[in-house]
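User: Let's play a game. I give you a shape written as tokens, and you guess the letters that built it. Ready? Here's round one.
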């Protein structure tokens, strides 16, 4: 991975992370202050809490991506330490899907006249779970690469002993 790519990715991560923290702070302020009255059309308090949690899942994934990029730059990504970050990303994606299903459940009573919206939202939740499965497949590829890297190191050590 080139230096420009790493810097660009880190810049994007910093901007998005700062933006999400700002939005979380605004949501939390709206919850605590009670200055934003609900008109009864949507359960805003529950949606705000769910939004704060949903943003938290994205933040966890961003921090883990940052750590993995750091490992790539150091050449240590093909190690067992990388699995903890990949597992955290998978967990964050699954948590995001659960948060989305909660939003779908909160929105469903208002969609009695048009249940297709709820079905579409459920489909989006399944798509989010699909992303978690894709990352799980990539984790398996990482595991294979780590195993091959360990095997190559062992073979190199044996070859060094012979020579």
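Assistant: Ready! My guess for every position:
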């Amino acid at each position: 991975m080139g230096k420009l790519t790493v810097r660009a990715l880190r810049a994007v991560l910093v901007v998005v992370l700062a933006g999400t923290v700002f939005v979380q702070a605004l949501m939390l302020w709206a919850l605590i202050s009670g200055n934003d009255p609900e008109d009864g059309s949507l359960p805003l308090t529950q949606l705000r809490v769910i939004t704060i949690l949903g943003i938290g899942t994205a933040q966890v994934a961003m921090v883990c991506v940052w750590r993995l990029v750091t490992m790539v730059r150091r050449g240590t990504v093909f190690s067992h330490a990388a699995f903890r970050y990949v597992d955290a990303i998978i967990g964050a994606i699954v948590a995001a899907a659960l948060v989305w299903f909660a939003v779908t459940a909160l929105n469903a009573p208002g969609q009695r006249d048009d249940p297709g919206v709820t079905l579409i939202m459920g489909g989006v939740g399944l798509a989010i779970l699909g992303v978690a499965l894709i990352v799980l497949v990539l984790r398996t590829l990482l595991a294979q690469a780590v195993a091959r890297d360990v095997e190559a190191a062992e073979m190199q050590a044996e070859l060094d002993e012979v020579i």
